[in-house]
Each structure stands twice: as structure tokens, then as C-alpha cells.
Amino acid sequence: MNSVGEACTELKREYDQCFNRWFAEKFLKGESAEDPCGQLFKRYQLCVQKAIKEKDIPIEGLEFMGPSKGKTENSS
Amino acid sequence: HPWETVTTAAMQKYPNPMNPSVVGVDVLDRHVDPSGKLHSHRLLSTEWGIPSIVKSLIGTCRTKTYVQEHSVVDPVKKTMELKSSNISFTNLVSVDERLVYKPHPHEPDKTVLTQEAIISVKGVSLSSYLEGLMANTISSNANKGREALEWVINRLNAEIEEFTASARGTVRNSMAAAAFVEK
């Protein structure tokens, strides 16, 4: 699967591999300790944000690092 | 399929043959919140094969539609919620979708999906026929979504089998080599 920025596809693939492994083997099993993919994610992110600006894609809340649409999960 | 399998597949849903128009997926943000839930914000790029008459109205450089998706995975309560809405330059029609995956209450090896879509039309008044058409498309897309996950799950299982088979082969080879050396 490609990235919205053609130059970012390789970075995306590396990050995806790391994330998918962590997600299935750690996170879903309740071991959500440290996300080992932080560095990969940062590099990939910088590339994507540049591509989005270049393509002028209007995304709301991109600057915020928290849940943007304001709807957090309800706990019951 | 159990909830863990479905959730893992949903995170890797694209590419798949049922959604050929999705051409790009990117993670805009991802973090685990203080209560342990994983939030992901993703951007999906889609190419719809828009008829040329529409292209001539909106310009050929704007044939991509973007969908913004926010997902929340709670590994303790075992829920996955996906909210997505389209971002389009024309801004006339917006489609918001909400999907929730939960383990089946009585059959632990199954997952229940509830899905809803809200279609809003701004400014231009579409005939009710067009609105009905969109609603039908969305409900057949819901089936496609299920088929798409089924496809991804099969692919992931095939990868695991391949890996196991080659690992077994390696072990057998090294055991044979060890037996040879012992003689």
C-alpha cells in the first residue's frame, strides 16, 4: 500500500511492519508497555506532513497530537 | 473470527481486492491514551474513476478523494471503534461512517460488527433517487467490508503457515545435519 506522498512509501512500510507486529503480539495481549516503533514513526510522520502540505489536503486537527474529533471512548 | 483476529486485520485492511479505489493509507497520528486505548488517525486516499464530465467541472488534478479515519482500540474491553468521514474538495456530499467491532456476547470465536453511515448533502438538492442510490451503495459496501477483512485474515493465515512450514524445514535439516555429524 502506498503513501499519500510517493517519497514516504518506504518509510511507511518499515513503520507498518514494526507497528503490526507490536499491535498483534503485544498490545492486544495487554502488554501495551513501550511502543518500539517511535523512531520509525517520527521519520515517517515528517515525510507525510510535508507531503500533505504540498498537496494542500485540508485535514482538521493535524497539528494536535491528541484525539481530534473530540469524541473519546465512553467508559461504562 | 475472534475479535483479536478481526482487529489485527482491520488495522491492515488495505490493499484488498474489494476496495480497489483505495490507493494510499497513511498514519497521521497514533498514541496510547492514559486509559490504555490506542488512538490512530489515518488518511486514506481514494481514486474513484470519476466520469470525465465531472472531471471537466472540478478539474483533473482533483480526482482523489480523501477519507479521514479515527480508530480507538480498547484491548481490555475488547472494542474497536472506527469513525471515518470523507474530505473532498467539492464539499457537497459528506459521508460519515461509524463501525464498532466487539466480541460476540455468546460465541467467543466470533466478532460482531455494527455499522452506520450518515450522509449529508450541503447546498445542492439531490433527488431522493440519488440519495437512495448512495444508501444502497453504502449498504453493499458494508458487505464488501466484511469480505475485505475475510480476505486479509486468509492472507495473514497463509503467511503464518508459510513461515511455520519453512521453520519446520529448517529444524529438520539441522537435525539431519547433526545426525550426520554424530556418525
Q: Summarize the amount of helix of chain B as a percent range.
A: 25-40%
Q: Which radius of gyration of chain B do the C-alpha atoms yield?
A: 22 Å
Question: Structural class of the secondary structure composition of chain A?
Answer: mainly alpha
Number of helices of chain A: 2
Layout: helices, strands, pairs:
The complex is a heterodimer of chains A (76) and B (183).
Chain A: H1 9-25, H2 38-55
Helix pairs in contact in A: 1-2
Chain B: H1 3-11, E1 22-32, E2 38-47, H2 52-58, E3 64-74, E4 79-87, E5 93-103, E6 111-121, H3 128-182
Antiparallel strand pairs in B: 1-2, 2-3, 3-4, 4-5, 5-6
Helix pairs in contact in B: 1-3
How would you describe this protein?
The complex is a heterodimer of chains A (76) and B (183). Chain A has 76 residues and is an all-alpha fold. Chain A has a domain of 50 residues. Helix content of chain A is 46%, strand content 0%. In chain A, helix 1 packs across helix 2. Chain A is elongated, with a radius of gyration of 15 Å. The C terminus of chain A is likely disordered. With 183 residues, chain B is of the alpha+beta class. Chain B has one domain: Alpha-D-Glucose-1,6-Bisphosphate, Chain A, domain 4 (2-Layer Sandwich), CATH 3.30.530.20. Chain B is 39% helix and 34% strand. Chain B contains 3 helices and 6 strands. Chain B has a 6-stranded antiparallel β-sheet. In chain B, a hairpin with a 5-residue loop joins strand 1 and strand 2. In chain B, helix 1 crosses helix 3. Chain B is globular and about 75 Å long. The model of chain B has no long low-confidence stretch (mean pLDDT 81). The interface between A and B is large, with 39 and 39 residues.
What's a quick, concise take on this entry?
Chain A has 76 residues and is an all-alpha fold. Chain A has two helices and no strands. In chain B, helix 1 crosses helix 3.
